[in-house]
Design a protein that fits this description.
This protein is of the alpha+beta class. The chain contains five helices and five strands, in the order αββββααβαα. A five-stranded mixed β-sheet has the order 3-4-2-1-5, sandwiched between helices. Helix 3 crosses helix 4. The chain is globular and about 35 Å long.
Length: 143
Amino acid sequence: MSTNPVIDARDLVAELFPQARWAVLNGSMRPSAGSDLDIMVLLPDGDPRAAWTDARRFRGRPVELFLHDEQSLDSQIAWELGARKPFLHRIVTTGATIAGDPHLWRGRCIGTARSLSSRRLSAPVRRIPSGRGARLSWLRCRR
């Protein structure tokens, strides 16, 4: 295993995806046994490997690859935000750039996060029911 996960990630992307528009690295950046690398790769539009997740080992380190083109990344991020599980959103906004320039997508993701935050802050607060039968009624309204 290499001692530098960023170099490993760059080499992996250069070797497997020379056509990548950009790639970012997230995940554990410690060079220890068991630490993995999460790599989001934006492929050219229409690439047959887009909308795919791949798990493999590279130089002895576990790697998870998230492969998308513009359309599939847009769909996946929208779905994740709707499900309140913004995994790829976080990778795009906080990951270390290892190929290309993801700044347009980063700006887009940051803008979406700000918009969601402002909507949540301005949304009315639901009152928690009290009194007899309140727990049952609260459970019903949460479903």
